[in-house]
Amino acid sequence: MAAESAQMSAAALSGNSAVFGAYLRETGQAFVLLGELQDHHAQVRFTGRFEGAEVVWDCEFVTLQSEQQRGPPAPAADPGPLRSFIEIGEPGERGVPVRVGLDLARIDRPAILKMIVMMRNYKRLRRGRHEFGAPYLGG
After folding, report:
1. Spatial separation of the C-alpha atoms in residues 62 and 106, rounded to whole Å
2. By the 8 A CB rule, do 16 and 56 touch?
3. Rounded percentage of the chain residues whose pLDDT exceeds 70
4. 0.85 exceeded by the pTM?
5. Among the listed residues 112, 22, 43, 103, the one whose alpha carbon sits nearest the alpha carbon of residue 68
6. Half-sphere exposure of residue 87, counting CA atoms within 13 Å on the CB side?
7. Using an 8 Å Cβ cutoff, are 58 and 95 in contact?
8. 23 to 5, 99, 132: CA distances (angstroms)
9. Cβ(89)–Cβ(15) under 8 Å?
10. What are phi and psi of 25, to 5 degrees?
11. String of DSSP letters for 63-80
């Protein structure tokens, strides 16, 4: 990813929504994929609204299968069943970090586009982890 990032325009990695948005428009892209698209993991950047402003989402997108194999994120007495989630961190230089985990067989371009629409349509986003949907049963 570092080698590919070095070859990318600074605008493609900017956390400034105006600069990054202009880059997307100029290149005709809906999002920027960082690194290789893997079946269960993708690192993508796209724009959206958060806390009343246009932001750059710096997103790690994972399947629940890969999340289950990773194990619980932190020591917890009873983490409960794994569910689809959105986990939003503190804004930084590269935008707003977010991890999105969905119950998908694999991540591909259509899945990324659907996830972006979901993020843009979710009106009550706030920092922290938000879980939704039925518990993941594995598979």
Report:
1. 9
2. yes
3. 88
4. yes
5. 103
6. 13
7. yes
8. 15, 23, 33
9. no
10. -65, -45
11. EHHHHHHH--SS--S---
